[in-house]
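Case 214 in the screening queue. Each case pairs one protein sequence with one candidate compound; here the compound is PRP. For every case the pipeline is the same: read the inputs, emit a complex structure as tokens, and attach any notable structural observations.

Predict complex for case 214.
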Amino acid sequence: MTTIALPTGRSLGDCVEILKGAGLPTENLSNAGRHLVVADGPFRYLLGKPTDIPTLVSQGAADLALVGNDVTDESEVDVTEILDTGRGKCFMAVAGTPETAVRFDGHVTNLMGLRVATKYVRTASRTFEEWGAQIRVLNLNGSVELAPALGLANCIFDIVQTGGTLKANGLVVIRRTAEVSLRLIANRSALQLRWSVLRETVDAIQKFVADATN
Ligand code: PRP
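Case 214 output:
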């Protein structure tokens, strides 16, 4: 039995497509309803919140997982990234009002003390630190676009897919900071101890990804 953790929410559809494309059984997964553990042939799928996926893998509850690198970059847990599926593409960005965007045009000192709302506290802090700017982070767990409108923050650091949420809230991308896509990750010990079992699945996903990009 191989256990694969998958993120609920908007990435789940892409994950099912990848697994299906790789020839893994997905019939029960596609009809999971409210079930969080789904058995499909020799596979068991765990459905968790995106931010919990690295933990499920590092703790050994799952051998493998599909999850965005926005989540693994933010998480401090130890997992191994095996491959980039190239699916579920989006990007990380600093976004704000056009007025705030002007502060990013000049010297880095213009960014000192900037209030940044985000659910990616570590990644945001790291990114601004690399630019040499000391900022104040406001940790919100969702709907971060609210913060500039309410005067709680000057800008946000968030994931952007269609750009629809930014547009609807009068915000623009100020700096695109990283590309994001669904990655296949693994538990480090499972990779070593169960490679003979996991290999077929990893190879099948790799082949699907390679065929799709050629
Ligand atoms: C994410 C992100 C943005 C939105 C971007 O939130 O935080 O709010 O999606 O997508 P778009 O560019 O296609 O509009 P999500 O929908 O995951 O919910 P959340 O705000 O509760 O985190």
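Case 214 observations:
- The chain has a mean pLDDT of 96.
- Residues 51 and 71 are 6 Å apart (CA to CA).
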